[in-house]
Design goal:
This protein is an alpha/beta fold. The protein has helices spanning 6-21, 35-46, 53-59, 68-82, 91-98, 110-123, 136-139, 152-162, 165-170, 173-179, 185-195, 203-214, 236-251, 253-259, 277-288, 306-319, 330-335, 342-352, 375-378, 394-404, 417-423, 429-448, 456-482; strands spanning 24-28, 49-51, 85-88, 127-131, 143-146, 266-270, 292-295, 323-327, 361-367, 385-388. The protein contains 23 helices and ten strands.
Length: 486
């Protein structure tokens, strides 16, 4: 019998017992949790035959592709004639084709086919087990068992199958379980095979692999500008709060377990445009990596897959918990009024994060206008931490400008930062980007024309004036859009 981890052994024993009471069984479990191993073990213990989906694929080579269920029925009924027990694997893949919302012309006809197969098994005292899923009318005829979430003991068992004994003996599997709570047998095997050659493998190195390669986020970090929380100027209190209430429980799992720490369930980042809300998301993405998931403007309300994409993000976050779901500019999603059910959906998600399997998922919302957010979303208990991003003060603007102007050529040296601070009063951090970039462009343009004779500061003051004019135009456009004429 193939080796089974403790969670798989429990499922194996329960399903084997159920088959003494009823000839029909169903084995459920997440893809990669080891359903095939359990089915093979049951098959060996019953002297039966194991039929994976590959067998159906081979049979379909000479069959009508629009009669999948007939080929399936013939394959299984012939197996029942020859063997005392038949164990079917990957049934969920078949059902996705013949019961899904696609163009298969005989949708749901497979339900009648499987009932006939069940009747054959019952009338001939044979065993029939569906692995990976089964139609509802099969579940009502027999017992269903599901492979439970793996414990630290399961992590250790799987690792010992693929790592040298000495290496596995050094690993703290309770620590690994706290860091990645929902790993599957397939994911553990992949990690162990990758790391097996590391003679002095440590728990920290195993976690680093999971953080950078083993777990998956919906954010491609290569496309996210590199920034650290510590690089954000004028946000010391906000960063400290994020570090304490979000990052610490996610990164320091041993302390989180010892002291019962959990990340805040809901966090609101509120502030004017350009004050660093999205940049905070970028910093968290690089900091948390596979623990960070983002919902942004690429999720378009009103499109057919809008809710499916959002549900997919939350599902991935739950699977990778502890994790963060970062919903950028959520007020813009509500402004259109097209998605009246969106906030109810988000309320359900937030309330569901109280459950045991989701309690380590934190949702961070960013918004510019509090008035555009549904009141029910803001009530106490859902948004547990309110943080505001503000315009940078003079010291913060000075540090931002100095960072952006660092390393400029000698012919632009001697910039009067004090005059720039005066000219950029009321600017956001985003406003300072074109001040630095456009000031250099103005200088280079005059230099090419042989006219660069002004003091270096003047070019950046000119750039600041243009930014201020653009801000005024933007404010006027907003006022006209609101119709208030202000």
């Amino acid at each position: 019998m193939p080796p089974l981890c403790p969670a798989q052994q429990v499922t194996f024993a329960a399903l084997r017992h159920s088959l003494t009471l009823n000839p029909i069984g169903v084995l459920d479990g997440r893809n990669g949790s080891g359903k095939t191993a359990v089915l093979r073990a049951l098959c060996e213990s019953h002297g039966g035959v194991y039929l994976p989906l590959a067998e159906l694929v081979v049979e379909m080579r000479q069959a009508n592709p629009l009669a999948l269920e007939e080929t399936f029925e013939r394959l299984v009924s012939e197996a029942l004639e020859k063997h005392p027990a038949v164990f079917l694997d990957d049934v969920d893949v078949l059902l996705a084709v013949v019961e899904g919302c696609g163009s298969y012309p005989r949708s749901n006809w497979v339900s009648g086919v499987v009932i006939r197969l069940c009747e054959i098994a019952e009338s001939t005292a044979k065993k029939l087990v569906f692995g990976g899923g089964a139609p509802w009318n099969v579940r009502s005829r027999g017992y269903s068992q599901c492979i439970p979430e793996f414990s630290a003991a399961d992590y250790e068992f799987v690792a010992r199958q693929y790592l040298p004994a000495a290496t596995a003996g050094r690993l703290d599997f309770a620590h690994l379980k706290r860091y990645a709570t929902h790993l599957l047998a397939r994911e553990l095997r992949s990690a162990c095979e990758w790391l097996a050659a590391e003679a002095e493998l440590t728990t920290a190195e195993f976690i680093e692999y999971l953080r950078t390669q083993g777990l998956s986020s919906n954010v491609h970090l290569a496309d996210v500008r590199q920034v650290r929380l510590q690089d954000l100027q004028g946000m010391d209190e906000l960063i400290t709060s994020l570090e304490t209430h979000v990052v610490l429980p996610l990164e320091n799992d041993a302390l989180a377990t010892e002291y019962g720490l959990r990340p805040k369930r809901g966090v609101l980042l509120l502030g004017p445009p350009g004050t660093g809300k999205t940049t905070i998301g970028r910093a968290l993405a690089h900091r948390l990596q596979s623990k960070f998931f983002r919902i942004d403007g690429t999720f378009i309300p009103g499109t057919n897959d809008f809710y499916w994409k959002i549900e997919s993000v939350f599902r991935q976050a739950r699977d990778n918990a502890p994790a963060v779901v970062f919903i950028d500019d959520c007020d813009a999603m509500f402004q259109s009024g097209q998605e009246l059910g969106l906030y109810r959906y988000l309320l359900t998600m937030l309330d569901g994060l109280e459950s045991e399997g989701c309690k380590d998922v934190c949702v961070i919302f960013t918004a510019m206008e509090l008035a555009d957010l549904p009141p029910a979303l803001l009530r106490s208990g859902r948004i547990e931490l309110w943080l505001e991003t503000r315009l940078p003060d003079a010291p913060a603007r000075a540090r931002i400008l100095q960072a952006k102007l660092a390393g400029i050529p000698a012919d632009l040296a001697g910039i009067d930062i004090a005059r720039l601070l005066e000219a950029t009063e009321g600017f956001t951090g985003a406003d300072l980007d074109p001040v630095a970039a456009d000031g250099k462009k103005l200088f280079v343009a005059e230099k090419l024309r042989g006219q660069a004779s002004r003091p270096a500061t003047d070019y950046f003051l000119e750039a600041a004036q243009e930014v201020r004019r653009n801000k005024s135009r933007y404010a006027a456009a907003q006022a006209a859009q609101r119709g208030d004429g202000s």
